[in-house]
Amino acid sequence: MAGLYFEQFEVNKVFRHEIRRTVTESDNVWFCGATYNSAQIHIDAEYCATTEFGKPLVNSIFTLGLVIGLSIQDTTLGTTIANLGMTDTRFPKPVFAGDTIHSVTTVVELRDSKSRPTTGIVTFRHEGFNQRGELVCTSLRQALMMRSPVARPAEAVSAS
User: Looking at the 3D structure of the chain, how many domains does it have?
Assistant: First the structure.
């Protein structure tokens, strides 16, 4: 399914995304290497055995990216112009290799763009859950979204 245009979103609309993904040790090690994050808590199993977790934690930024990524096909694939920001991001439970993550997205706010009449701004609440239903990530994301070509203001279409 292609992404939705700005006017197709409704405040309080909830998307329960069908696609899930199991996180692997390789995902975590690759991501830490690609982002130069050498924190022992993510990549050193011997060190992690001495922590309260007993094993490496998946990098939280990977978790955030995965939670949002799992939402794209149902919401913004091909219709997002830009991410404007992410706020209120939290990681209430850790993610470990072997956890299967699924996402739920809620539309929190819709507003017109003041500077770009062919767009609107959508605030999404993304929530990620593990296979036990535990919340592992939550974030508010503001995205600049395309308006449908048929719903764009006439002056904006003629200026394009």
Answer: 1
In a domain, 153, yes or no: no
What local confidence, expressed as pLDDT, does residue 30 receive?
Answer: 97
Q: For position 155, what pLDDT does the model report?
A: 52
Q: Residue 155: inside a domain, yes or no? A: no
Residue 20 CB partners (closer than 8 Å, separation 6+):
70, 100, 101, 102
pTM higher than 0.85: yes
- 110: domain CATH number? 3.10.129.10
Q: Torsions phi, psi of 62, nearest 5?
A: -60, -45
Distance in angstroms (rounded) separating the CA atoms of residues 104 and 102: 7
Question: What's the pLDDT score for residue 149?
Answer: 86
Domain that holds residue 133: 6-148
Residues 6+ apart with CB under 8 A from 61: 31, 35, 37
